[in-house]
Amino acid sequence: MDEPVVFVFENKQNLVTEFSSFFSKLVSQADASFRVALSGGGTPKIWFGDLAANHRDDFDWQKVHLYWGDERCVPPDHSDSNFGMTNSYLLEKIDIPESNVHRIKGELDPKQAAEEYSKELSEFQDESGIPEFDLVILGMGDDGHTASIFPFQIHLWNDPGICVVATHPDSGQKRVSLTGKVINNARAVAFLVTGEAKSEKVEAILNGSEKSTGLPAALVNPVRGELFWFLDKEAAGSLRIDE
Ligand code: 6PG
Questions:
Q1: pTM for the whole thing?
Q2: What letters, b where the CB count within 10 A reaches 16 and e where it falls short, cover 185-201?
Q3: Which atom of ligand 1 has the smallest separation from the CA of 43?
């Protein structure tokens, strides 16, 4: 894999504005369907708001297929639901066919939800039998988790399956998460990371230092695809500012 492309922004708004243009460009360049796995968390929430307010007519939503990189095992209208958050900040405001929205069914038994989602993702597997997303969007937790692979369960990153049932270390909440082989099979992976609390781990990961050992986010290393980091200056620590 080539070196990651790192963008550092003055603030979250500049970051999401630029990411919306980045996303719009990728979608417009796609000739057929564009499959993207979304992330939960606070940073994507801001991006969804920007996308809905300023870019919803920039491209044809008919070719965009929305998936999730992870989901909490709760009903879609639960305050913890990643789908639920995306629905209120974005989906309700854009004209996207319902059949293009492929949520993880958090209301089901976690194992069943993981099995059903794996089956759905197998519809676009590549010759190696691994689903190939056009873009996977990730966040990184303060502890270095990404999607819902947490440090204490880092072995799940290498699970042979397409997705796994994971557990939040503090709440015990069950999650369904993509595995590392799917994330690293994407044509492009983009981290959206903001806030000072992430800076130490961001620097450790980008510098490939010892301190990145044991961090699931450090395992994101697309086999063929490109890796992008969109950071605000707080998360970037001593890295330079682009915008
Ligand atoms: C989730 C996310 C999770 C998130 C990180 C960062 O379901 O919570 O997938 O991995 O990306 O916790 O969240 P922030 O963007 O809020 O820092």
A1: 0.97
A2: bbbbbbbbbbbeebbeb
A3: 15
